[in-house]
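Exercise 7. Given the components listed, write out the predicted structure of the assembled complex. Treat all entries as one system.
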Amino acid sequence: MNKNLTWKWGVIAGTLVFFVFGIFGIPKDWSGKGLLASVAERIHLGLDLRGGTHLILQVQVNDAVNVDSDNAIARLREDMRTHKITYVEITKPDPANHPETVVVKGVPPEQSSDFKNLVTDRLPDYSPSSGAENSWTVSMKSANLADLKNRAVTQAIETIRNRIDALGVSEPVIQEHGLGAYQILVQLPGVDDPARVKEIMQSTAMLEIKQSLGGPYSSEQSALQEHNGILPPDSVLMPGRSIGSTRENETGENWYLISRAAAVTGRDLRTAEASRDENGQPAVRFILTGDGGRKFYSFTSAHVGDNLAVVLDNKVQEVAVIKEAIRDTGIINGRFTEQQVQDLAMTLRSGALPAGIKYLEERTVGPSLGADSIKSGVNAAVFGMLAVLVFMLVYYRWAGVNADVALILNLVILLGFMGFFGAVLTLPGIAGVILTVGMGVDSNVLIFERIREELRNGKTPPSAVEQGFSHAWITIVDTHVTTIVSAAILFIFGTGPVKGFATTLVFGLLANLFTAVFVSRVIFDWVLSRKQRGEALSI
Amino acid sequence: MWNDLTLEAFCNLETVETWSSDLEFFRNTNIDFLGKKWYFLAFSLIFSVAGVLSMLFWHGIPLGVDFRGGTLVYVKYSHTPDVAAVHADIDRAGLRNARVQRYGPAGNNELLIQLDIQETSEQALDRGKTQIVQALEGRAGGNGDKKDLNNSSSKTLTEYLLEKDPLHLGTDANPRYTVIAQSIVDNRDKVKSGVLGSIDELNGVVDRAVVASLKDDFFASDFGIRNVEIVGPQVGQQLRKQAMLATLYSLAGMLVYLALRFEWIYGVAAVLTVFHDTLITVGAFSLLNREISLTVIAAILTLIGYSNNDTIVVFDRIRENIKLRRRERLADIVNKSINQTLSRTILTAGLTFLTVLALFLFGGEVLRGFSLALVIGIVIGTYSSIAIAAPILVAYQEWRTARGQKPIAMPVRTGTQPKEKVKA
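Answer.
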């Protein structure tokens, strides 16, 4: 064996060891079970094989924009009052589609420059533009708007992650789903009944403690009548319904008149926990932060004797009289079950969602289907591989052994790649492995057929091998590039199982360039080096 | 049209001096492929037109739930399910437009229940599924008091066992009951394929006290939910657009790469060929009324890449032969090139076909559409690289000659062919 060949064998052996390490790592236990366990640790099964839930949800980013523009309106009112700028009304003409746009009507022309300065000065995220009949349109700057929406998504991901972690789901995937607008992809392995998880994820858990200015009223209309159709400034009507109430027991919804401004909100919470109220009913007890406590203390001391409302997700949970100034603890009750109290405390701890979420897609794979899929995937892989290996042996004889060795090494490298990258193996991914076998062996066929052709044209075996490899190489590169290009596009556009397919196909074909060309050539050279001059080549 | 193929050429058993082999297909064939281009054209036209007609007037393009949105619930029964009765139950639950059909081989006892997009709003995405499960449980003897063991997760079971503590474990109860719950679920899902006939089947799997305790609050229905897919309208629309874009980008990618590596007309010929393959494959799905799911699109994208392989093999040889035989007619060169590469074209496609066939036969119901697309696509792709791609090249050249222009400058790029470097 010449020197040249020796280092090539070295490269092959090194590659083999490297990628076997990629598959197994360093197993703690060398028994069959231990090896399998270490593979499972490195190559993860996709949801479609292990069972679980896949969700796509969308953050209603306009909610977050509405909150911001509501605050802007409140600040504008306040500032225009102090700066003595008069106006007729301030509205949001289209809060559903353009929550970032506020219209101020009736600003006197002589005050327009004052108004403009006020907006640029006090609302740096907004820009004013004057319209017809003394009206001004104050809109959020597009850069700020985009930033606010993206922040809402990031914050929602963070909050959802906290909640799912608290539920104890192992290895969840929670990430922005780049293919849609403001969408989040959530994968929960092992969760095959997602109803409760979904509810927990979805609850915005926006807690506010506000002053109650009146009520309960039996309906929205009667509440309006009570005030002659005009609500006091900076107050709103809110329905009072606890999430725990059974609707049958209620004669109807109660409505309350609630102040717009909140004394404290969920952001002021230090912690929340499941507890019981003075009647022994399940309730959530919360403790405020130092800052929140001070705010709450000054509020309650100023309002002793007034009513206080605990508002969760814009629904009044309970109304109580402030008997004395409260510093930092409170309780939320309202006919909850034990489970609901646990969940509510948890969502309050994990923070509020910056905006509502909507589910767009839900896929659940039960564990029995996953187990069956693994079985049929493995069956197909074994039969497909055997068919190819046997065919190559029969058709190319000793050269077939060469191809089979290269093919097996190809698979080892493919699985090793997946181990190193912590790739996810899905059912289409297994199909990708099978296709890699079918497409990978094509390279060998191209080379072998060319060698046969050269031999037929009277070339000596060494020269035929040389010619065969050099001619087929270009073709192999071209064919691989086209397949990898389409697999890469699939990788970019696909999600979940399809992505797993693209991954295995790309890795498999890249590895094939090495095994079918380099490894196979080394084996040929080795075989030729052991043959006498003029001895036939088994191909 | 294959009668030029003699048996001798098909299977040559003679041994050559410097080379020994028992088996060789397609040796020294000399088939006039270009002479048969009208047959090929007719064949392709029939299939494409049939497919297009089916897409337009018959089955349309049968989009899977991924693209059209809707609710799919796959239910496995412990016995042969009564489709009509199940349908009646679901109808009674208020889901008027549900479709109930058998899924997979009859022995699987599996049903697929589908709701269309009207009953799958994003406001309450899983409402349809919940209603279906309730209707099925009502039929299976569930009255709302007891939980269905066949549709309970291991977490539910663990919580239940912890509360009841049938083994009186005390302190280390949690890990023990977690293991017990998991073994119940594993027995159900992995040994019994997802459905337990009765709770008593668990005797021998877990302690009798556990079984007895489960019987207090659980019952065993005759079905298990295997798989649920709910796709809202927004995602469906989004995926349709993406699948379209991905296919177009793929085709464009091929065009650019082949135009760079060969001449632009080669790229055009290859892309037209692949488009032909895609059209016939999608047409076949329409004719068979098989749904096109995300994985079918994945298969089609793979085919766009793979169908080109055989075309490239032929083109490479044409390019090589053009350099060697400058005086011959392009048609002759193309014919010769196809014949020279015929055996590898058939072999490579045949081997890939073998693996795809294994996938189709053994890969299970989930991958059926995917593997069907590959089975059809590989056959069509191989055929078209011989019957469509090469004739396009020749037709283009004849068209140029007819207009009195010089034959196209066929690529005589050197450097891509390392032939010169090789010592013969």
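Discussion: Residues 496-529 of chain A form the longest helix (34 residues). Residues 242-251 of chain A have pLDDT under 50 and may be disordered.
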